[in-house]
Write a structure and sequence with these properties.
The protein is mainly beta. It has 1 helix and 3 strands, in the order E-E-E-H. Strands 2-1-3 form a 3-stranded antiparallel beta sheet, with no helix packed on it.
Length: 97
Amino acid sequence: MFVSPMLLHKIDKPFDDDEWLSELKLDGIRFLYSTMNRFNFYTRHENEVTERFPELMNAQMPKGTILDGELIISDGDGKPDFEQLMSRFQVIYGEYP
């Protein structure tokens, strides 16, 4: 079951509010993890990519869970490695799911 993810919005000035937390934008892809019917992973464009991340199938999430976040792959120093992530999608001509 696909649910549209929350996406970034452009603003004209920096966000500053003591009632909210924010985090840096990491270089990855928008990723939805769903256990509504079975384990399914989706990109923000509703492409199912479950088979490309078999190591995530072992996560213990209750049925009916949807996680919406940014998926990254880290290099040996813990820094995001966007090229490695794109290789998981077998990127052709700079496009990804």
